[in-house]
Automatic annotation (TrEMBL):
<keyword id="KW-1003">Cell membrane</keyword>
<dbReference type="InterPro" id="IPR013525">
    <property type="entry name" value="ABC2_TM"/>
</dbReference>
<dbReference type="GO" id="GO:0140359">
    <property type="term" value="F:ABC-type transporter activity"/>
</dbReference>
<comment type="similarity">
    <text>Belongs to the ABC-2 integral membrane protein family.</text>
</comment>
<keyword id="KW-0813">Transport</keyword>
<dbReference type="GO" id="GO:0043190">
    <property type="term" value="C:ATP-binding cassette (ABC) transporter complex"/>
</dbReference>
<feature type="transmembrane region" description="Helical">
    <location>
        <begin position="44"/>
        <end position="64"/>
    </location>
</feature>
<feature type="transmembrane region" description="Helical">
    <location>
        <begin position="257"/>
        <end position="276"/>
    </location>
</feature>
<dbReference type="InterPro" id="IPR000412">
    <property type="entry name" value="ABC_2_transport"/>
</dbReference>
<feature type="transmembrane region" description="Helical">
    <location>
        <begin position="162"/>
        <end position="183"/>
    </location>
</feature>
<keyword id="KW-0046">Antibiotic resistance</keyword>
<keyword id="KW-1133">Transmembrane helix</keyword>
<feature type="region of interest" description="Disordered">
    <location>
        <begin position="1"/>
        <end position="22"/>
    </location>
</feature>
<feature type="transmembrane region" description="Helical">
    <location>
        <begin position="76"/>
        <end position="101"/>
    </location>
</feature>
<feature type="transmembrane region" description="Helical">
    <location>
        <begin position="190"/>
        <end position="211"/>
    </location>
</feature>
<feature type="domain" description="ABC transmembrane type-2">
    <location>
        <begin position="43"/>
        <end position="279"/>
    </location>
</feature>
<feature type="transmembrane region" description="Helical">
    <location>
        <begin position="122"/>
        <end position="150"/>
    </location>
</feature>
Amino acid sequence: MSAPPSDRRTEGEEGAGPPVPSTVDIGMRRAVLETRQIFRQREAFVFTFAFPLVVMGMFGLIFTDDIPGTDVPFRQYFIAGMIATGLMAATFVNLGIAIAIERDDGTLKHLRGTPMRVGAYFIGKIVMVAVVTAIQVAVLLIFAVLVLGLPLPTGMDRWLTFAWVMVLGVVVFTLLGVVISAVPRSSRSAAPVVILPFMVLQFISGVFFVFTDMPGVMQQLGALFPLKWVGQGLRSVFLPDSLQAIEPAGSWEHGTIALVLLAWLVVCLVLAPATFRWQRSRS
């Protein structure tokens, strides 16, 4: 007598079960969840959107004079720096603190027990900060035009420059946020560990002052980090070409900006996976 047919289905047969989601699919689902969460967190929402807006408004109302030797108001120079620092706040600062907290409270350890992969986790973070940054930049530009009366660029070539500088900046600062998140020993130390370099970089990268007005040592130090180059790229978008004369090389240096940011991107792509941990060290 022949054995009854088995109800089991071998792997690969039709109906064997739903396919395992890809890394991109998991990452995009995570991005939706993370984006919803950041808009529900009042503190993160206020810091991300209110901080650059308040600083831009204060400096725009205080510094009403033109840049010495030009007919360009300093507030027009300042808008590029504020977009750059707002970009870094939304990515580097928020992620550096948030990931450290998620590691400390066990959220990452819980995610490790799910189909979540490191690549999917990174995709979720990058997409989330890209959405937040896009909203933040739109708010800053609207404020600059309606309140400070600043003109927007009209040439398509300038907006293309704006696009590639912003994309490279978002990815580099996001991965740097992942790297810095490995430094704090606990969630309590995360904020000071992350915010300190953020504040220092603002002062040496030409955010609050004309870059070439700073001492030479500070200029050389600032040129080592991506914030200076993102700011310079954005200045080439919002300032007239005559202002190239006050840049260190006397030009916008688009090629150098791209090379520096791409170099940082390669370094971060190596460091981020190497330093990322699902749970804090027992030490």
